[in-house]
Write a structure and sequence with these properties.
There is one protein chain. The chain has 435 residues and is α/β, with parallel strands linked by helices. Among the domains are: 136 residues, no CATH class; 144 residues, Rossmann fold, CATH 3.40.50. The chain has 17 helices and 14 strands. Strands 5, 6, 7, 8, 9, 10, 11, 12, 13 and 14 form a ten-stranded mixed sheet that branches. Strand 6, helix 11 and strand 7 form a beta-alpha-beta unit. Helix 3 runs parallel beside helix 5.
Length: 435
């Protein structure tokens, strides 16, 4: 009980949330596999993502009148974090006690709760339920999953500082609690570095080495969020394909990794950092079978402006990004974008449809594997189709599952869904010469 009280004081002193008058910035300190009881003391290590990486949906946060001081969900969140770490390290009793405290706190329904806090409460209840299942499956092979966790620079080149452009191994050491694996004798630092060097030979990812020699198609989700969707896809494609989750925020990347560990998804790798950097500098050309982007955040615009007049420098889905996707995709590789924002999808369809290599040479064309029932209400834009509905297995959506963001949008009455599915058009050598 002593170490639980001490943990509560530590996390509270770190100010788990920071509230700004203009926007909410979620500064999350993670408990990263470092729960170690020694002589009654608790050792912990945290990672704080930079404010630039904490781009939140302000529409939800601005509607919540609950301030940090009266955040009723802080206590169950803290205990869920403790349960995560304890479960990973095999401290079953500590995990069960933390989940019991979290469950008791969540069982008390408050009448004066903002809408966003009610949704967060439900997500925490889902997390408690999944952790209870994970406790029964412990222990876990942490080293095997750490070998499939990579950390890239958190910002694109041209805007990142020298401190952000750290080596992948150093990023894992500083941000994900890797030294604890060495201290516990789970593996040696030399062996881990050697394995990482083999996976990133020449600065380029070798998927078969990352997944232990398994030669399967590699599918990539960009901006994976908390990982509900990509973990479900990896489970559905077990033995058939390998999945890679790319997520900018390190705290969310850790969430994806822990969910993969608890689900036993050994065909899933996680890359923390900027997806633009990963695709441009790390991914070998022609090595990815499918790329999925789910519920991308539209760029910031001034009032009454459309998405084509975006002002945000952090907008990811640009022409340059789609050209990098084209290079990464294998022949006839598929790109699928899924969203509830029809206007934004029109903007992305225009961007994709106008991409050219040489005179008249398209980079992408509409996929021919789209569900026939979705073609009836499809909208044509620059030679591509914006379909109404949910993508299927041919588009990389093998498992029908909702993500955390999807559930938020559904609760907000954003029930219409749209998707664009395009296929890579092979660029000829003549097109390359004309560039």
């Amino acid at each position: 009980m002593f170490w639980c009280i001490r943990m509560f004081r530590i996390v509270c002193s770190w100010k788990y949330h920071v509230w700004s008058g203009r926007c909410g910035i979620d500064i999350r300190w993670l408990l990263l596999g470092v729960l170690t009881l020694r002589r009654g003391a608790l050792r912990c290590c945290g990672f704080r993502a930079s404010a630039a990486e904490q781009r939140k949906r302000q529409c939800w946060q601005s509607s919540s009148p609950v301030s940090t001081k009266c955040d009723t969900l802080r206590y169950p969140r803290l205990n869920c974090a403790i349960a995560h770490v304890a479960c990973l390290l095999g401290a079953r009793k500590a995990a069960e006690k933390a989940l019991e405290r979290a469950g008791n706190a969540l069982a008390t329904e408050l009448t004066a709760q903002a809408e966003f806090d009610r949704l967060r409460r439900r997500e925490l209840q889902r997390e408690v339920a999944s952790l209870k299942k994970a406790i029964k499956a412990a222990p876990f092979d942490l080293v095997a999953f750490f070998r499939r966790l990579l950390a890239a620079p958190s910002q694109r080149k041209g805007r990142n500082s020298a401190s952000d452009a750290v080596a992948p191994f150093e990023a894992l050491r500083r941000g994900f609690g890797l030294p604890q694996c060495f201290e516990r004798g789970l593996c040696t630092e030399e062996d881990f570095q050697a394995q990482l060097a083999r996976c990133l030979r020449g600065g380029r990812l070798r998927w078969n080495r990352l997944f232990g020699g398994a030669k399967r198609p590699t599918l990539l989700e960009v901006c994976s969020g908390t990982g509900d969707w990509v973990v479900a896809q990896a489970q559905a494609d077990a033995g058939r394909a390998n999945w890679v989750a790319s997520e900018l925020r390190y705290d969310r990347a850790w969430s994806i990794m822990t969910k993969a560990i608890f689900a036993g998804a050994d065909n899933l790798a996680v890359i923390a950092g900027d997806a633009g950097t990963v695709l441009k500098e790390w991914v070998l050309p022609g090595s990815v079978a499918k790329v999925c982007v789910n519920f991308p955040e539209p760029p910031q615009t001034t009032r009454n402006a459309n998405c084509d007049e975006a002002e945000s420098e952090l907008h990811l889905l640009t022409s340059d990004f789609f050209e990098d996707v084209h290079k990464a995709l294998s022949d006839s590789g598929v790109l699928t974008i899924f969203s509830d924002n029809q206007e934004y999808m029109r903007s992305l369809a225009r961007t994709l449809g106008l991409l050219r290599r040489g005179p008249g040479g398209r980079l992408f064309e509409a996929s021919g594997d789209v569900d026939a029932s979705h073609l009836e209400d499809a909208e044509e834009m620059c030679g591509l189709l914006i379909c109404r509905g949910c993508p299927g297995e041919a588009e990389g959506h093998a498992a029908k599952v909702s993500s955390q963001f999807d559930r938020f949008f559904q609760h907000g009455q954003h029930t219409d869904r749209f998707y664009i599915s395009v296929v890579k058009v092979q660029v000829t050598s003549q097109d390359d010469q004309q560039l």
